[in-house]
Design goal:
Layout (H helix, E strand, L loop, with lengths): L2 E3 L1 E4 L5 E5 L2 E8 L2 H21 L16 E3 L2 H15 L4 H8 L3 H7 L8 H10 L10
Antiparallel strand pairs: 1-5, 2-3, 3-4
């Protein structure tokens, strides 16, 4: 999973402002630390959609400062981000990946929609046509 460090700053009204060192465009707020961290996941996913829309690589998580909170991107979203970055590294477009997978482009569009519950088998198949293997583990 991708674990991104977050900054939590207490606001004057008792809430917490959330920011991401790796994503200046991702901001959120929460009534308390737990709420702020929960809302941070939504902010992170919104920022990732910007990267996908603008066809930019998603930055890897920076090294957290000691004691800094982390936000874990869920497993399926992590796989999609890693797949996106590999496609970007190989200078491929969604249409190229669709041709390689022998599917219609809207299926690949959904693959990079973080709100869509893609089947992990399709993510695995996409990784394979890019010459990669999807690895899943428990910790």
């Amino acid at each position: 999973m991708l674990n991104y460090p977050v900054t939590l700053v207490p606001d004057t009204n008792g809430t917490y402002l959330v920011g991401f060192p790796d994503f200046p465009e991702a901001n959120s707020v929460g009534d308390n630390i737990e709420d702020a961290l929960k809302n941070a996941v939504d902010a992170l996913e919104s920022a990732l959609e910007i990267y996908f829309d603008e066809r930019r690589p998603v930055p890897a998580p920076s090294v957290p400062e000691p004691g800094q909170h982390l936000v874990a991107l869920p497993a399926l979203e992590t796989a999609k981000v890693l797949l996106w970055n590999e496609m970007y590294a190989q200078k491929l477009r969604k249409a190229d990946l669709a041709r390689m997978l022998n599917v219609h482009t809207p299926q690949v569009d959904r693959l990079f929609d973080l709100k869509h519950s893609s089947k992990i088998e399709f993510v695995e198949q996409a990784a394979k046509v890019l010459g990669k293997t999807l690895v899943v583990g428990l910790k």
